[in-house]
Write a structure and sequence with these properties.
Elements: E1 6-13, H1 20-36, E2 41-44, H2 71-83, E3 86-96, E4 99-107, E5 113-118, E6 124-125, E7 128-129, E8 144-146, E9 149-153, H3 162-170, E10 175-180, E11 183-184, H4 190-211, E12 215-219, E13 221-224, E14 239-242, E15 246-248, E16 254-257, E17 264-271, H5 274-281
Parallel strand pairs: 1-2, 2-3, 9-10, 10-12
Antiparallel strand pairs: 1-17, 3-4, 4-5, 6-7, 8-9, 11-14, 12-15, 13-14, 15-16
């Protein structure tokens, strides 16, 4: 009989509060609240220090970037040590002049920076002009070992790619984590909004099922106006970030879900030992035909 190995996790679903200082102050309070409720792992949303600036292309936005390690990792590290929790954050990394990444960082419960992941898949869509700012990651898909487990950290657009989740699982990840900033154009019809959000949730459930792992996705919330709102193009009015941060079990079951309208601290207990049980009855890794997958390395089979 397999015994439970539980981990209490917290997801901080927040809106932008107007400045780095204000956002970090709110994060500090949320982490304190999470620790008070027994959390040992805290996941923050994508680019949590400020607004989602990728709605337009402006060289001035590069002033937001910072080195890693740097001020934000020092702040988060001190917070992690103060409360004895592991924190997964998401930062605009300045690696060198003209070279920047969208980077997730992992702070151990003793405050040390134990790993980072540079976002591999970079979108370029209306309202999401990330290719202007971010160089694709070059660290690969490698889980980060912590005191609470091996974390498969990915970022937002990565969440649509089964290859990314699979490679993290094949490297021994015990959890898949997605700091996220996703929302819809306010002018979209409600049925289109529903389809987009349902597809997003289904993609995460698919990763959980296909890999037999819990999945944590932390999204931002609230309307963020576009700096180009006076222009007439798709997404010009801004983005309504739809929240719905959630935690899934290894069969895609919904363990907890935040709402679509307000900031929320989502705290839930996850049984990490369930992955062993699920993988015994659904042995997808055993039955993979790795001898027949060579064409996956091609862009397309013409």
């Amino acid at each position: 009989m397999m015994s439970a190995r539980t981990l209490t996790v917290a997801l901080v679903q927040e809106s932008d509060h107007g400045s780095v200082e204000a956002n970090l102050a709110v994060i500090a309070q949320r982490v304190a609240d999470a620790a008070e409720r027994g959390a040992r792992l805290v996941l923050l949303q994508e680019l949590h220090n400020g607004a989602y600036f990728c709605q337009h292309e402006s060289v001035a936005e590069f002033d937001r970037a910072e080195p890693i390690p740097g001020p934000s990792t020092a702040f988060l590290g001190a917070l992690a040590k103060q409360h004895g929790v592991v924190i997964v954050g998401s930062l605009f990394e300045r690696r060198a002049a003209g070279l920047h990444h969208n980077t997730a960082v992992v702070l151990e419960a003793d405050g040390t920076l134990v790993g980072k992941y540079r976002k591999m898949h970079i979108p370029d869509d209306p309202g999401f002009h990330e290719k202007f700012y971010f160089t694709p990651g070059d660290l690969g898909f490698h889980p980060i070992d912590t005191s609470i487990g091996r974390l498969g950290v990915l970022v937002c657009w990565d969440q649509w790619y089964p290859e990314a989740a699979r490679l993290m699982a094949l490297a021994g990840a015990e959890l898949l984590l997605y700091p996220t900033a996703i929302g819809w154009d306010p002018s979209d019809a409600q049925d289109e909004k529903n389809r987009q959000r349902d597809a997003w949730m289904l993609s995460h459930r698919g990763h959980a099922v296909a890999n037999g792992l819990p999945v944590l996705s932390c999204n931002r919330i609230g309307h963020e106006p576009s700096p180009t709102a006076s222009e007439k193009h798709v997404g010009a009015t801004g983005i309504d970030f739809w929240g719905n941060s959630h935690v899934l079990g290894p069969q895609g079951e919904l363990l907890a879900e935040a709402n679509t309208e307000t900031a929320q601290l989502l705290v839930v207990e996850v049984d990490l030992a369930r992955s062993e049980h699920v993988r015994r009855i659904w042995p997808f890794l055993r039955d993979r035909r790795i001898d027949a997958y060579g064409d996956l390395l091609r862009r397309y089979r013409d």
